[in-house]
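Readers of this paper often ask what the protein records in our data store actually look like. Such a record has a labelled line for the sequence and another for the backbone structure tokens. Nothing more is needed to write down the fold, since each code stands for a local backbone conformation. The remainder of this section carries one protein's record, kept here as part of the documentation.
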Amino acid sequence: MTPAPHLKDVKGPLKISRITPIYLGDHKWRFEGLDYPDLYIEDGEDLLSKKPKFVKLRQWIKKKFDLSEEQVDQLLIRFAKVIDDTYVEEVKERAIENAEKRLEDLPRWRHNTELLKKADDYVSKRLREIRSVKEYLDFLRNEVLKHLVAGEDDNKLVMATLLQGKGFIIILPGPPSIGKNYFADAFVECLDVYTTHRITEHGLEHIPEDEVEGKILYIKEAESLSDHPSHVMKSFYRDYQEDVEAFIITYPIKDPATGKQRSIKQELRVKGIITTTNLEWMDRSLLERAWIIDLDPSPEQTSRGLEFIGRDEDEKSKVKLGLLKWTSRQWSQALFYNLLKRIEDVEIWIPGREHIPKIVFRKRINDLETRRDARRILRFLENFARLCSPILDSWRIGDVKFKMATVDVIIEGIRLYLKLVHNKKRIKRPTCLRFAEKLLQHYHGRDEVVIDLGERHKLARAFNRSKDTIYKRLKELSETFDSVEVKDFGRSVGYCVNIPALEVEIKACEPPEEVLSEEQLDELQEAMLTSLYTTLYGESLTKQEFPAENNSSKENSDKL
């Protein structure tokens, strides 16, 4: 409890000066010497309001001490000042505590000033040397992002791109031990995040709003994104309000008094959401709304991952012994962290952006999903251009400064986006196909396997599924593919699987990957150049001067 100073200058009986407001915490106050119940006071001005409980307080003071209205007002004004001053100090103390807690929660490399300084110097040096988009992308892949995780080159570039936006939901689905959290953690440690392990049907009300505001919400290994809890995540994506940069969560609850369902709305001011989850339990409609990063489950990637983790652990032990200053992973994280600071809040202009969706998705105009993709691709390209902004030319029209995306940047961004679309199509395939891929991974290197009752029990343990589910999936495969045959074992039924033949049949079911044709590339380039020329030299605009702000922008006039 925090005592406030005595109020000695109030006119009236001497005992009034002995009244001391005592703060009990959580906006609760006790007035020592007044013999009155504790009060919940949101703001000091409430004491002078016409709310019933404060009107009652005024009447109590007036009657108990035989004061005039003016004297009561003077007393309550003094109390209000004490209350407001106390709240101001409380906010300051909480801010200091939160700042200290954030520092404690940061990974150790974020406190290493030598590492961060060397990373800053190195990025500055490399950016002065880079002269083309290709060189910059090589710099991202082979230096900045290389040692965050093994392989996954395109997925790392996609993740770095998505993090440039606001109001995003990024989901990394997949079976246990594929490396979802290891991949996410590499990026999350470079960001300002709030980490939680829970998502419930009551929304995220257990998360303190002041601690999560302005951060990225990281839901680590969400138990389920299906059924009721998924409505919270779907509400997140659907109801993001850009003007206030907040998600409006809407979810149903059962009123304990009436037993009826009612909707609750909750505002959460977070920049975006990252979560990992088990693929097979993901809600299909949520899959359509979120950004999905599909990690490589191949044995080759597993081999690369094991080698990477072994090297990282070895480097950690050397750092602990003083033989190394930092690990290769920490060096990559420091480079990425430095790059993020350079590109934050950079304004981007994409010439001809209004033509891009029609050019890219011309072949599937009858597909309703194309309408959603048309909006999403423009956001993705703007974020990718921001990621590439250190080597883009700087421009100015009036007081507005921005970086202009080039054709090369947009083409590479479209390639990455089409890969995201392809991965989503793969995830949306029937369950039996995904089960078949698991079988191929499980029996990698074998020619033929016989799955009897005992083997089904082993698969159930390996895939973390029931024996009945395994039997159901095998039956579906036998009805779909020639490479899976039913085998009679007397009282039980087994299945004979030709692994190489099943692999061929699965590949035949692979959705085709979209790529831009030469005609589309030419049309895209022409649309961007035409838009640029019209914007700069159109009759409705006055030609402006474009002063160079970096070495790469000195020849802007020659490029036009």
User: Anything to note?
Assistant: The CA atoms of residues 356 and 524 lie 7 Å apart. Residues 431-508 form a domain with the Arc Repressor Mutant, subunit A fold (CATH 1.10.10.10). Residues 1-12, 539-560 have pLDDT under 50 and may be disordered. The longest strand covers residues 246-254.
